Amino acid sequence: MDQDTGLAIPSVRPDGLQLDEHRGRQRRYWRMQRVAWWGFGAVMLVAVLGLTGSGGVFHKQTIAFADATVEIPRVSRWEGSDDLSITFHGPGDSHEVIITQPFFDRFAIERIQPEPDQNPLLPGAQAMRFAATGAPPHQVKVDVRATHFGWTRFDIAIGGETRPVSLLVLP
Question: Is the same domain home to 87 and 143?
Fold first, then answer.
């Protein structure tokens, strides 16, 4: 380098390098990078396992009743489509499902297959009654879309049994 440029030439360090950089700062930076990569890896693992919605081993939760099984997502995505499957194992001319209001505050029902015969409103809940013919199992599929994000707790009742359900809706 030329002396006329005004740039300071760093002195030669005892290890032979001609650097004017603080090694401690670089080590801290590398340490932060390693922590960040471990954090990114943890987020990827959580996503692959299904804990961020849309597939994976832990995407769905199964709630067991005496005569039915409900499969519902653990994690849903805001404004993303999801489904709720109800399988009735017991015989009967009709089956009834009662879902409390916090579910309907967070989700919009897009489609119910098959359509319920009756849909009476209860205090703080909605009931759906389905006609059943033939031998069980009978299956109902409800397509839902999350309208708000956040943690939701609600109850599902089938055949006189009530189970609490917790569900996370991610933005």
Answer: yes
